[in-house]
Amino acid sequence: MKVQRFSQQRERIYEAVRASMEHPSAQMVYEALRPEMPRLSLGTVYRNLHQMAQEGRLRELEGPVARFDAVLPPHTHIRCIRCGQVADLALPYDPALDWEPAGDGWAITGHELVFNGVCPACGAEQPSEI
User: Fold this and answer.
1) DSSP 3-state assignment of 32?
2) 60 touches 66 (CB < 8 A)
3) In the prediction, which pLDDT does 2 show?
């Protein structure tokens, strides 16, 4: 895995994710940084976020739209099935699940736990469809 050299753009992208509790998408990071960095492209944001995730500086949360998290220790997330919002969930991470027998020869290396639901804002908009 090749570590990229330092660049001011790259560090601002990383700082934007670290400063956000929203688990931002590349689009969200781009929109947050665009006023201070008018020459920044969305492609640059995507490329740098994905590279930092591969390097282990960020965690990439897969979904309909990839979100990024600067909190690296294992923890639980909750995702809104309507708007895609992702938040940390105050639920203890259970490392014992990594040691449960896996069957069929699998060796468990870790796990991610994401709950899906409807966030309060989306639930308030259309409560009858929950």
Assistant:
1) helix
2) yes
3) 53
